């Protein structure tokens, strides 16, 4: 049932057709298929879209729409308690040393996507570029959707498995996955890995993020928080 209406035969056949496309044409078509299906998954109360082959991710947003930023128009603002505030383009980030990781992505709601290939700039390298002042204790991240925010302690932000990610799933970070640039915090639940990253601010204390103000743990270590016992990545 969808909003009290029965699911028709055409819907079932349509889901089957979507799945056939992904099976028949491989990874390029699969990425396009994931892009097309993402908004349907977000509104599907039937579970039918789970029949469509995909990359395993479930796409969440906290607002009804997010601006599309092209590679040419994207900018990342880095400011706050730093010596040299910067506004970086995607080209600026691509010119920095790139780090690759193959790690799982674990959502606090229970699903996990294993062995995801990530590539981008270590957040520690970006912090070194702007120069962190001695009074900084934490990092606040904001999405360019205008709503979502997150935080890490400075020690957490400097871990080698925390990336400003430019690539994932063997291609640039797609719009649905939070592109052109997102954060990936490997050892923590997915709500820490903020999508549509637009701003990084160095601050003097941790500020709870969007989901944390709604009950999730500020410290989001996989298997050690939020009452869950998931295996660490």
Order of helices and strands: HEEHEEHEEHEEEE
State the helical fraction.
Answer: 10-25%
Q: Taking Cα atoms only, what radius of gyration do you get, to the nearest Å?
A: 19 Å
Q: What does the average pLDDT come to?
A: 84
Task: Describe the sheet with the most strands.
Answer: 5 strands, mixed
**What is the strand content?**
25-35%
Structural class: alpha+beta
Number of helices: 4
The separation of the N and C termini measures 36 Å
Regions with pLDDT < 50 over 5+ consecutive residues? Answer: 1-31, 44-53
Q: Please tell me what the overall shape is.
A: globular
User: How are the strands of the largest sheet arranged?
Assistant: 2-1-10-5-6
Number of strands: 10
Model description:
The protein is of the alpha+beta class. Strands 2-1-10-5-6 form a five-stranded mixed sheet.
Topology, pairings included?
Blueprint: H1 9-43, E1 75-80, E2 86-89, H2 90-95, E3 99-106, E4 112-122, H3 123-130, E5 138-143, E6 149-153, H4 154-157, E7 162-168, E8 171-172, E9 182-185, E10 197-203
Parallel strand pairs: 1-10
Antiparallel strand pairs: 1-2, 3-4, 4-7, 5-6, 5-10, 7-8, 7-9
């Amino acid at each position: 049932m969808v909003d009290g209406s029965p699911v028709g035969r055409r819907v079932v056949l349509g889901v089957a057709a979507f799945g056939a496309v992904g099976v028949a044409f491989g990874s390029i078509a699969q990425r396009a298929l994931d892009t097309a299906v993402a908004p349907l998954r977000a509104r599907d109360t039937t579970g039918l879209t789970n029949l469509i082959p995909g990359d395993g991710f479930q796409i969440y947003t906290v607002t009804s729409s997010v601006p599309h930023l092209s590679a040419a128009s994207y900018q990342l603002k880095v400011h706050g308690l730093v010596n040299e505030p910067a506004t970086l383009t995607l080209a600026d980030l691509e010119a920095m040393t790139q780090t690759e990781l193959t790690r799982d992505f674990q959502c606090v709601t229970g699903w996990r996507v294993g062995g995801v290939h990530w590539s981008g700039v270590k957040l520690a390298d970006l912090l070194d570029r702007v120069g962190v002042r001695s009074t900084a204790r934490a990092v606040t991240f904001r999405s360019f959707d205008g709503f979502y925010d997150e935080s890490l302690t400075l020690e957490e932000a400097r871990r080698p498995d925390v990336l400003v990610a430019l690539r994932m799933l063997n291609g640039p970070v797609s719009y649905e996955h939070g592109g052109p640039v997102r954060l990936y915090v490997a050892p923590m639940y997915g709500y820490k890995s903020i999508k549509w990253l637009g701003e990084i601010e160095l601050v003097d204390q941790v500020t709870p993020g969007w989901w944390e103000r709604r009950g999730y743990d500020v410290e989001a270590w996989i298997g050690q928080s939020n009452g869950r016992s998931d295996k660490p990545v």
